[in-house]
């Protein structure tokens, strides 16, 4: 899908934790929804390990982070947010996760899926959280071959009535390879508002906004955008 494509598309964003999409791609999502595309979120975990406090009530944290993600989604124009309920920090790209993701894909029937890169980035290590890489790997397996193959997980047809669906394009973020940038200068305020909705995770200070602006400005320069522009970056994969 090219930037500025005005024909409405269905887009499914699959991320490991609440807030992953907002730190990494909320500017892009806000552009998409403003252009009339239908964006749906699928969050694999509840983020119940997202605390520096070993005594935190993890049930409370999971409930809080779900609510924060729903609020952040509304800010950038996303109305549907689903959670798969996997344990934070323990995600593995096995058959169970592949089945659940194939189910989510067949339900949403997206023209594009956005997710994590399955590859480790040795320069920016934080982007390569084990859950991120596991989800990225499982998503690519769910896109091909699982979601499109009617013989894969036949219970999805038998029990859920979900016919096979072919996703033609996947965008991944957080890996070592980049080949596409999205100008998010105009939606940067919405991105920051979505990040700040995750109050349990920080990101509230003016210093953090400056840091984020600096990062996106560097990506924009890499893309050859004019000075003062901001960008988010991806690797686009043809999966048709």
What do these coordinates show?
The chain has helices at residues 20-34, 58-75, 95-108, 130-146, 155-158, 188-196, 206-222; strands at 10-15, 38-45, 80-86, 112-116, 169-173, 180-183, 231-238. The chain has a single domain (10-238), classed as LmbE-like (Rossmann fold), CATH 3.40.50. The protein has a 7-stranded mixed sheet with strand order 3-2-1-4-5-7-6, with helices on both faces. It is an alpha/beta fold. 39% of the residues lie in helices and 18% in strands. Helix 1 (20-34) packs across helix 6, helix 2 packs antiparallel against helix 6 (188-196) and helix 3 packs across helix 4 (130-146). The model has no long low-confidence stretch (mean pLDDT 95).
Summary tags:
single chain; 240 residues; alpha/beta; Rossmann fold; seven-stranded mixed sheet; 7 strands; GlcNAc_PI_deacetylase-related; zinc; hydrolase activity, acting on carbon-nitrogen (but not peptide) bonds, in linear amides; N-acetylglucosaminyl deacetylase, LmbE family; LmbE-like_dom_sf
Write the layout of secondary structure elements.
Layout: E1 10-15, H1 20-34, E2 38-45, H2 58-75, E3 80-86, H3 95-108, E4 112-116, H4 130-146, H5 155-158, E5 169-173, E6 180-183, H6 188-196, H7 206-222, E7 231-238
Parallel strand pairs: 1-2, 1-4, 2-3, 4-5
Antiparallel strand pairs: 5-7, 6-7
Helix pairs in contact: 1-6, 2-6, 3-4
GO biological process, one term: glycoside metabolic process
Protein name: N-acetylglucosaminyl deacetylase, LmbE family
InterPro entries: GlcNAc_PI_deacetylase-related, LmbE-like_dom_sf
